[in-house]
């Protein structure tokens, strides 16, 4: 090893503590003196090395130049390793930034998708509410029109009815049906019958007083509900209103005794818990869930020929319409042997089997269920087009019913 002068070595040992404390100055040029360098870890090491080299240049002799070169080489290797570590750390930071940016983009995409979905649900709900509002307004307009037609018909026929009735006949017109108070003249009482919606049987006891016997009578042109009230006196013969030829009073003929049928409306006690009713129980709607949930119509029908027409107000995937046993389990009725129905796709279904039948139906269609208890058969018609007999060998008592699959499905009884 080259010899170092003792004085130089002693002086170098004295300034070594000061080297580590030296400020970070570069000696690039005279103009750069006093200018502070970058404060990054790598820059600090480079500045420290520069101070060391400058010190060695001042205090090391020429013979020790080789030793200085070797020291510089080792120091350069350390700096290279340190620089590699710093670059690796920078790459790691960049990679973490890329991962974070990708995660943020995915979260933003999910938030946007959820926002679109919620917006779509809100739009659908608003549209459903608007449809219901329009349906309610249309129903009110139809009822108002029927009341106006009834009042006009009564005004036109009132003089003739008063002239043809007896002195004790009193006619009263309200916003509802036409109320007619008829005083009978015979002791014998006969049943009060209606061809479309069943009959009310009156007691045949002579001298009995009929206080409130109501029948619903309809004509092809004026669907007018007429309430008939009478009191039987000594002769007991009743009078009724014939709406087929204008409003007039005529004598009726004796009719055979018939059972009493309730109005054709949905029965709130014979339905699944996930359905609701409105408009006087003539409209049913599925309020939640999925699956075949039924709603039965009042009944049952045990004899005679009957029909009921449903209007499909809203349907997502499918609806069943038909008849069933009054005691059927209120779930998946058409899959049992106690339900007979037509599917919206046009097939007839019973006992969990489907058969080719006739025309399907969509939203707005009118589907009629026709039951003949004399032949124990049921037939269907879609928008007035008969599809033929669907099932026979029905039980002795049946009820019309509706099955809805999706939330929001709704059906209305129109006649």
TrEMBL record:
Location of region: Disordered: 23-42, 189-263
Pfam family, one: SPRY
SUPFAM superfamilies (alphabetical): Concanavalin A-like lectins/glucanases (SSF49899)
Compositionally biased spans, kind Polar residues: 245-255
Biased composition (Basic and acidic residues): 25-42, 222-243
InterPro entries reported in the protein's UniProt record: B30.2/SPRY (IPR001870), B30.2/SPRY_sf (IPR043136), ConA-like_dom_sf (IPR013320), FBXO45-Fsn/SPSB_families (IPR050672), SPRY_dom (IPR003877)
Domain of life from the UniProt record: Eukaryota
Domain B30.2/SPRY: 243-415
Family annotation (PANTHER family): SPRY DOMAIN CONTAINING SOCS BOX PROTEIN, SPRY DOMAIN-CONTAINING SOCS BOX PROTEIN 3
Name of the molecule in the record: B30.2/SPRY domain-containing protein
Organism: Kipferlia bialata
């Amino acid at each position: 090893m080259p010899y170092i002068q003792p004085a130089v070595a002693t002086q170098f040992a004295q300034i070594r503590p000061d080297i580590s404390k030296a400020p970070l100055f570069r000696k690039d040029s005279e103009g750069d003196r006093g200018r502070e360098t970058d404060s990054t870890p790598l820059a600090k090491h480079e500045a420290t090395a520069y101070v060391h080299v400058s010190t060695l240049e001042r205090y090391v002799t020429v013979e020790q130049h080789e030793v200085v070169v070797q020291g510089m080489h080792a120091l350069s290797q350390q700096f290279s390793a340190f620089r590699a570590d710093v670059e690796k750390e920078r790459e790691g930071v960049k990679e973490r930034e890329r991962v974070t940016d990708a995660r943020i983009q995915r979260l933003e995409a999910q938030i946007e998708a959820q926002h679109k979905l919620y917006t779509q649900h809100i739009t659908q709900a608003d549209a459903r509410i608007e449809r219901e509002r329009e349906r309610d307004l249309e129903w009110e307009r139809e009822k108002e029109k029927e009341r106006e037609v009834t009042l006009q018909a009564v005004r036109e026929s009132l003089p003739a009815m008063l002239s043809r009735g007896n002195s004790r006949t009193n006619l009263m017109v309200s916003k509802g049906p036409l109320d007619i108070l008829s005083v009978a003249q015979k002791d014998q009482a006969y049943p009060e019958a209606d061809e479309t919606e069943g009959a009310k049987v009156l007691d045949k006891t002579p001298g009995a007083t009929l206080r409130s016997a109501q029948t619903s009578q309809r004509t092809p042109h004026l669907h007018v509900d007429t309430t008939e009230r009478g009191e039987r006196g000594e002769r007991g013969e009743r009078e009724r209103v014939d709406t087929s030829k204008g409003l007039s009073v005529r004598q009726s003929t004796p009719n055979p005794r018939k059972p009493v049928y309730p109005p054709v409306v949905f029965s709130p006690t014979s339905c699944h818990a996930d359905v609701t009713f409105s408009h006087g129980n003539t409209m049913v709607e599925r309020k939640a869930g999925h699956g075949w949930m039924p709603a039965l119509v009042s009944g049952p029908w045990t004899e005679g020929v009957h029909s009921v027409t449903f209007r499909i107000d809203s349907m997502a995937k499918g609806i069943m319409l038909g008849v069933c046993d009054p005691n059927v389990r209120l779930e998946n009725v058409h899959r049992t042997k106690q339900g007979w129905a037509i599917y919206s796709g046009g097939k007839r279904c019973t006992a969990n089997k489907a058969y080719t039948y006739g025309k399907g139906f969509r939203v707005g269609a009118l589907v009629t269920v026709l039951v003949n208890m004399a032949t124990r058969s049921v037939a269907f018609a879609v928008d007035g087009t008969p599809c033929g007999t669907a099932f026979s060998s029905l039980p002795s008592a049946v009820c019309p019913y509706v099955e809805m699959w999706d939330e929001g499905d709704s059906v209305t009884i129109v006649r």
